[in-house]
Specification:
The protein starts with 5 loop residues before the first helix and ends with a helix. The chain is an alpha/beta fold. Helix 1 runs parallel beside helix 18 and helix 6 packs across helix 17. The radius of gyration is 22 Å and the shape is globular. The chain contains 18 helices and eleven strands. The longest helix is centred in the last third of the chain and has 26 residues. It has a six-stranded parallel beta sheet, sandwiched between helices. The protein has a three-stranded parallel beta sheet with strand order 1-2-4. The chain has a two-stranded antiparallel sheet with strand order 8-9.
Length: 433
């Protein structure tokens, strides 16, 4: 086994990290068969106009040009191409792309062989118009070195559910894995109940003062039906920072978790992914760009892992302040997988900090990153940037080992990187290695 020297360590580690295919365990990217539905949660979005009108950049452009100049309503009243022109002019032409979101667009354009300093979007639109969606998925996956894209399939979204129920083979693309997202079931029972009744589940009526036993039987049937239908790799829920567990005695959400969701997942061997900490509508005028974050209660995770040892939990939290406690708790429970640097944590300084801390506390028993991409093209820059950061942290850690006399081999590095970028997650959820 070739032993790495200090001189060659950095180049070798970065080459191995770059060459290792990654399984992207959480995105909002869809396979081409879903079509294009920008107004819905389901739909494959790609190209320069979609890249520039992503909500990160919408929020940023209103930092540069205040709403007193272009109101929120006026901006959202523009077509997608007009919005993209506006953002390009103010964030890329009139100033340098310094933020992570703007730098990401530049990285993507450069990796595609395009000039990132065009004054107008015409050349980019011409390039993307020459591509077909299916072939572009292959190109992006090759450039990002991603072996599988994990979708987020929101069962209570009307467009999404109609696609599945309509008989289309929307789950038949092996490049994509499905995830059953069930937010409304736990967070908005009135909406979920209306959908369930429409699909033929006997959950109607007022739950006040009702035991709910029969309703819970139907909810379990619903979960099993949709697991059979879409064959998800895990089930996911995005939760506010106020989420706590156990819940107030008699809480309907608590009963759904205890008597329906977790028993079904244990029986089916599926993990529950909890994404905790999003505060919706902090600035409602910005629409989806107006969400923020809050400090969450890690004790909720502790109580779930301790109380349900036969269940598996994947957890990511949005507040930086939660990360150390979550990493420490992860040392205590083998049924808990911390994953990714989610949303506002997906910035180089924070990715570096979190990856270093997790390696120091957990070794390679975590998943350092997911793209959380909503636009297909974002896979390129998110993995380009993250690989460099993860590689830098690994170089630091291997140097620490070498400094005390440990001989680091390239085979060891390859095995560690494969675990971090692919196998730790895949083994946890039961995917082939």
């Amino acid at each position: 086994m070739p032993i790495l020297t200090e001189k060659c360590l950095s180049a070798c580690v970065h080459r191995i990290v770059s060459d290792q295919p990654v399984t992207d365990l959480h995105t909002h990217v869809f396979s081409p068969v879903f079509g294009v539905s920008p107004e819905a949660n389901a739909g494959l979005l790609w190209g320069i106009d979609e890249l520039l009108t992503y909500h990160y950049l919408i929020a940023e452009v209103f930092r540069v040009v205040p709403a007193t100049v272009m109101s929120y309503d006026a901006f959202y009243g523009l077509g997608t191409a007009e919005q993209a022109d506006y953002i390009w002019e103010h964030l890329f032409v009139r100033r340098g792309p310094m933020s992570e979101a703007t730098r990401g667009v530049v990285t993507t354009l450069c990796r595609l062989g395009l000039d990132p300093k065009e004054k107008t979007l015409g050349p980019y639109r011409k390039y993307f118009a020459s591509l077909d969606a299916d072939g572009y998925v292959d190109l992006v996956m090759k450039l990002a070195n991603v072996d599988q894209i994990t979708m987020t399939n929101e069962v209570f979204d009307s467009v999404e559910s109609e696609l599945w129920l309509g008989g289309a083979d929307v789950g038949g693309d092996d490049r994509f894995a499905c995830v059953l997202r069930i937010d409304a079931l736990l967070l908005d029972w009135s909406v979920a109940r209306e959908k369930l009744v429409g699909w033929g589940y006997a959950v109607g009526g007022d739950l006040e003062g009702v035991s709910g036993g029969d309703v819970l039987v139907e909810v379990r049937r619903f979960l099993n039906d949709w697991i059979d239908r879409i064959k998800p790799v895990y089930v996911a829920t995005s939760l506010p920072p106020s989420f706590c567990y156990p819940m107030v005695e008699g809480s309907w959400m608590g009963r759904l978790i205890d008597e329906a969701l977790l028993p079904v997942l244990a029986d089916r061997g599926l993990a529950w992914a909890l994404m905790i900490g999003a505060v919706r509508g902090t600035n409602a005028g910005l629409g989806v760009a107006g969400d923020s974050l809050g400090l969450s209660d890690v004790d909720a995770v502790v109580n779930l892992c301790r109380g349900y040892g036969n269940n598996k939990f994947m957890v990511t939290m949005l507040a930086r302040e939660n990360q150390h406690e979550l990493a420490v708790v992860s040392r205590k429970f083998g049924n808990l997988l911390p994953f990714g640097c989610w949303w506002y944590l997906n910035n180089p300084s924070l990715i570096t900090e979190m990856t270093r801390m997790r390696l120091e506390l957990l070794g390679t028993t975590f998943s350092p990153q997911h793209s959380d991409a909503r636009i297909l093209d974002q896979l390129i820059y998110k993995w380009d940037h993250s690989r460099k950061i993860i590689g830098n942290v690994l170089v630091e850690k291997y140097r620490d080992l070498m400094a005390v006399g440990y001989e680091v081999t390239s085979e060891e590095v390859e095995a560690d990187v494969k675990r971090l970028l692919r196998d730790t997650y895949r083994e946890f959820v039961g995917l082939p290695l």
